[in-house]
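FIELD: query
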Amino acid sequence: MARKLDDVIAALPKERQQRVQARAMELATLKDLRLAAEQTKQQLAATLGVGQDTISRLEKRSDMLLSTLRQYVQGMGGNLELVTQFPNRPPVVIEHLGVQASSDKKPRASA
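FIELD: result
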């Protein structure tokens, strides 16, 4: 059975919990995430087919499309998941948000 991260952290000694929280706050930006993945702006830009200046601009943004964030994370070899949490309910992973759906339907003929 899978364990919740919150339960695992709660079982740690208080000092360890504080260190985990401090480290999580250090990884709060896209730049920090890229550095933790040991990638340079040049490497990520080449993977995404954009210029280094585009990576710089993305890392400074406070708001962006989910599809843009998904591409950025996938460019580093990761996977982006959006999880919603409500009181007294299990977390729900929202799928297909920010992903362009492919359609198997044939286009309608106009009348």
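FIELD: remark
The chain has one domain: 5-94.
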